[in-house]
Amino acid sequence: MNNLTIHSGETFEQVFLNEPSVDLHIVQEAGSHVKIHVLNWRADGSNDAQATNRIAVEQQGEGCSTEIYALAYLNGQQQVTTETRVTHAVGGGTSDQLIKFVLDEESKGRFVGELKIEQDAQKVEAHQTNRNILLSETAEMRTQPQLEIYADDVKATHGASTGQLDDTALFYMQQRGIGAQKARQLLVGAFIKDVLVTIGEDNNALRERLLNAVDGIIE
Amino acid sequence: MRICNFCSTFAAAFDQTTMSNLLEIHNLHASIGGKEILKGVDLTIREGEVHAIMGPNGAGKSTLSAVLTGNPAYEVTEGTVLLHGKDLLSMEPEIRAREGVFLSFQYPVEIPGVSMVNFMRTAVNEKRAYEGKPALSAKYFLALMREKNKLVEMADKLNNRSVNEGFSGGEKKKNEIFQMAMLEPCLSILDETDSGLDIDALRIVAEGVNRLKTPQNASIVITHYQRLLDYIVPDFVHVLADGKIVKTGDKTLALELEKTGYDFLNE
Ligand SMILES: Nc1ncnc2c1ncn2[C@@H]1O[C@H](COP(=O)(O)OP(=O)(O)O)[C@@H](O)[C@H]1O
Ligand SMILES: [Mg+2]
């Protein structure tokens, strides 16, 4: 496990690409910023690659921001588990989490999202969103959001959904002459790019490389 | 022949006499979820014609447009449909589109994350590839989009937005006609394109449709209201009720229906 303290006013930003294991425990001091991307990219892994991502972030000072983005795009028998634990110990902070899985063939995804806002942590704004697309009938997704909110004056939202590609959108595109496969590529590509575009300026080159690679790897 | 010369060339190779028959529907039956909705539709449409289809809610008008465009939710149980003499029902939806069948959806679909430009460029270039033509250059394509935006008074800033996402009701309908202008279909089906439009938007949409009219293409205009037919003047008006065409007339039939409604159906 990696223990990190982000000091007052500092920013920690990192992209983890295809790590078999990410295990981070971060403590944030007042006014610090954390932005993490965890990407598990099928094209670069073996057929049965497995990865576990554990990210725990604790806001111990006021006015912190935490952003966690996780994207897993899997096929074959690949498996990815992503666990996040965001704790607002003090008030005035924000946290945003966007977790997406695209699962094809017999791949499996699991997301456990713990969000805790402690009693004294007033004026916190915390959002957790988990969206998953199953591209085959044999792919599997398990989602376990766990919200513990003890403060009253907070804005907290969470949402989780797992489904197939939107049939009506596929047909709409086909009706315009776009082939079925190309239509699926556009929809999956849009779903994935939505996460990639959030990669910050420090990682410009990587973001562009991944965005350009998306169309090429969707079957 | 400017529009749709690909399908027309094929048709000419088959039979000169059917060449002006753009669409021939014979005894079409279709169902959804095991429930029969179309119960024997017959309709022939020739090049250059505008056909209005009217009829009560639930009659099967949208079902007919869904079946003609190959919506997989519907099952055709009987009958044939020929487009320029070719078996339409055996074609995949995208092939029907590339052969020149266009549907202006009653409820246009939002596609988050796919920009109008990307969507349209893919559609136009896939059609061109099907016709054996090279892809359009990015620059020429954008100019073409702007030109067609103007046809329906659609703000060109919408080109950079996701397809239909956050568009107003009127913008969605204009967007349908814009796409029709980009794709130059030989058969366009407008499914209640007028519903929910104020009179200005209605006029713009109708004028767009009229400007796209050529002697070679044809339209099916599905509507509840006479008022659209003041702008898009039909050659024929059909009444679809309970899955069949029960009455056909000229444009005066629409006026008559406006006055009397569909009560005659129960007599
Ligand atoms: N998914 C469905 N399952 C069963 N019946 C349906 C479904 N969709 C539409 N219908 C029925 O099909 C009939 C025709 O609908 P539609 O073609 O939309 O009519 P119109 O466009 O003429 O108003 C209606 O009775 C409607 O209730
Ligand atoms: Mg309808």
Tell me what the structure shows:
- With 219 residues, chain A is an alpha/beta fold.
- Chain A has 2 domains: 2-164, no CATH class; 166-219, no CATH class.
- Helices cover 18% and strands 49% of the residues of chain A.
- The model of chain A has no long low-confidence stretch (mean pLDDT 95).
- With 267 residues, chain B is of the alpha/beta class.
- Chain B has a single domain (22-266), classed as Rossmann fold, CATH 3.40.50.
- The A-B interface holds A 166-169, 171-180, 182-183, 186-187, 189-191, 193-194 and B 69-73, 92-94, 97-98, 102-103, 105, 108-114, 118-120, 122-124, 126-127, 130, 162-163, 179, 183.
- Residues 61-62, 106, 191-192 of chain B line the site of magnesium ion.
C-alpha-based Rg of chain A, rounded? 18 Å
Largest sheet properties of chain B: 6 strands, mixed
Strand order of the largest sheet of chain A: 1-3-5-7-9-11
> Would you tell me which CATH topology of chain B applies?
Rossmann fold
In percent, how helical is the residue content of chain A? Answer: 10-25%
Tally of DSSP helical segments of chain B: 9
- The tally of strands of chain B reads 12
Largest sheet of chain A: 6 strands, parallel
Brief summary of the model shown:
The complex is a heterodimer of chains A (219) and B (267). By secondary structure, chain A is of the alpha/beta class.
